[in-house]
Design goal:
The structure is a homodimer of 326-residue chains.
Chain A: E1 6-12, E2 16-23, E3 28-35, H1 42-60, E4 67-74, H2 99-107, E5 111-115, H3 116-127, E6 136-141, E7 145-151, E8 154-155, H4 192-203, H5 210-215, H6 224-233, H7 237-261, E9 265-269, H8 277-289, E10 301-303, H9 310-323
Parallel strand pairs in A: 1-4, 4-5, 6-9, 9-10
Antiparallel strand pairs in A: 1-2, 2-3, 6-7, 7-8
Helix pairs in contact in A: 3-9, 4-7, 6-7, 7-8
Amino acid sequence: MKRKPYIIGIDLGGTAIKTGIVSFSGKLFHHETNPTNASAGRKTVLKNIIAAVESTLTNSGITQKHIFGIGVGTPGLPNKNGTIITGAYNIPGWKGTPLGQVLRKKYHLPVRIENDVSAVTLGEATWGAGKGFKHIICITLGTGLGGGIIINKNLYRGESGYAGEFGHMVIAAGGEKCTSGVAGGFEAYSSAFAITRIAQEKTKGKRISSILKTALLPENHPQQVKMIFQAYQQGDRLAHSILQEFGYYLGIGIATLVNCFDPERVIISGGIAQSGQVLLSLMQPAYIAHLLPFHKKKKKIVLGKFDNRAGIIGAASLIMRQYTTP
Amino acid sequence: MKRKPYIIGIDLGGTAIKTGIVSFSGKLFHHETNPTNASAGRKTVLKNIIAAVESTLTNSGITQKHIFGIGVGTPGLPNKNGTIITGAYNIPGWKGTPLGQVLRKKYHLPVRIENDVSAVTLGEATWGAGKGFKHIICITLGTGLGGGIIINKNLYRGESGYAGEFGHMVIAAGGEKCTSGVAGGFEAYSSAFAITRIAQEKTKGKRISSILKTALLPENHPQQVKMIFQAYQQGDRLAHSILQEFGYYLGIGIATLVNCFDPERVIISGGIAQSGQVLLSLMQPAYIAHLLPFHKKKKKIVLGKFDNRAGIIGAASLIMRQYTTP
C-alpha cells in the first residue's frame, strides 16, 4: 500500500469555505477559498463543501489516494460522528446536519469534525504557538470572541462541549451586552463588534480624520477594524483612543484567564490577531495591572502562528491527532 | 499486619489547627480544634501541629498503629515533598517550612500536603458534593474567595500550581480592589471582606436597626457576616440590600465560571456557605441572567457537604486518593 502523506483541512465559515492540503508535520501545501452560500440552505452548503474538496484536489494536483483523512472545523457543536447538534448563527438550518456521514460516504476516508474554534486551538497546540506545552488557552478574536482550552495536551470540553466560551465571561458587571445577551461579557468589549461600538461612541459629534471617516463607512464594514488599526499606526488620535479602550478590556480579560487557569501559554488567534505585535502592546498595561503578582515574571501571551490559515491547519490537525501522539 | 483503617486530617489555619480522624469512606470519627499561634513563628506552629495530632490520638482513643497516613491542608503552596514554597498571609515566615519532612520524621507514616483550598476541593470531589463527577469547580467563600478545579477527576494545578485563583477574576473592570490589588476582582465583591465593605457603604449615615448595629460593632467582627445573614432572615431591610448586592456579584462570578468551564457541578464551600440555601437564593437571579442559554436548564450549583469540617476531611482525602481510585 502506498503512503498517504496528506490531510485535507476544511475551515467552514458563514461566508467562505477555506480548504487546504496539509502534511502530517503541519505544512500547508495548497489552499483555496470558495463560497459557502450559507443562506441557500443545508443541501447547498454540503454540495459546496464537496465542490471545494474536489477543487482543492484538482488545483493542488494531489490525488485522493494520497489523502489520509479529512478534518473539518465547523460553526456550532458537532458530536463524535460529526453530526451538528447545535445551531450555528452564521449557517441557517445547520443543526442536525450529518456532515461526518456525508463526507465518509463520499470519500471512504477517516473524517473528524470539530467546532471551528476548537479546531484552531488544536492546530496551534499541535503544530503552532502552543506546540510542546501541556496547558494552553487559545482565544479567537474576530467578529466575536471564542476560546479553547488545552489541559494535559487534550482539548477540555466540559460537561456538554461548551467549555471555553470566554466571550461570555463577565468582566464589566452591568455593562454592554454581548451577542448572547450576557451583560458585561468579554466579547462585548474585545472583538471586532466591540471595536465598532467603541468607534461609534468615541466619534459621535467629533471631528474625525478622513482615514477614520473612510474606515467607518458602512461599505467598508468588513475592513473596518483593519482600517482603524492602520489609522492608529498613522498616529490618528481618535483611533488611538478607540484601540486603547479595546486593549484595556482585552488585557483585563486575558489577565482573568491567566489568574484562573495558570496556563503555560495564552494564544491569540483570529482576524484581529493579524494586526500583530501592536495588539499585544495595546493590551499589555491592563494585562500586567490585573495579573496576580506571581504571574508577572513570565511571558505567556503569544500570537497564533497560522494567521488566516489557522482554521484549515487546525481542521487537518484533528486527523493527525487521531492517529499519532502530538 | 493489622489493618490501618484511619487517616489523620489536618486543616491548618492562621488562627486554629483543626484535626480529625477520618475513615477511608470519608466518615469523620473525631475532630478537635487547637490554637495555631501563628504570630509566634514557624517553630511554634510546627510544635502546635504535632501537639494537635497527639491530642487527637489521645482524645479519639485511636492509636497510631491504626493510622494509615496524615494529610494536611495548608495556607500557601506546598511542593510534592510538602515543603511550603510560597508565603502565606496568615502564617508569617511559613515559606520554606519542610512540613512534610517534619511529620514523616515524627510519625513514619505517609504524609501528603496540599494547599488548603485544593484540599477542600479534593475532599468534596472524593466524598462530598462532587462525588462521582468528572469536572468540578469548587469555590471557598470565607474572608477571601478561593477556588479549585477538578478536571477528569484530578486536581488541575496549572503551570505553577496557581490555577483556580477565582478571587482574582475581574468581574467589574475598574472597580474595587481585592487583597492582591486586582481592581474589580471577584473577591472584592463576594467574600466576608466584601460584605463588610458593602455594609459600611450602605449603612453610612443611615438609621440602622439595633440588630445590624450590633453586627457592625468592631468586637463582633468574626461573627459579622453571620449576624448580617441573621438580620436578613429577620426581615431587616438594610441587611437585605447588603446581601442582595453581594448575591448579585456572586451570581455573576459563578455564571462566568460555568460559561468558561462548563463543569458538571459548582460547589460552594467555606464559612459563608454555612448560611445554606439562602446563599443560593441570593445569587440565583444574577446567576441565571448571566448564564449562556444552553446552561440554563441544568442545576449545577450546590453547597459543600462538609461545612466547617471540609478542611479536615479534604486533608484526609489526600491520603485516600493517593492509595485508592476515588
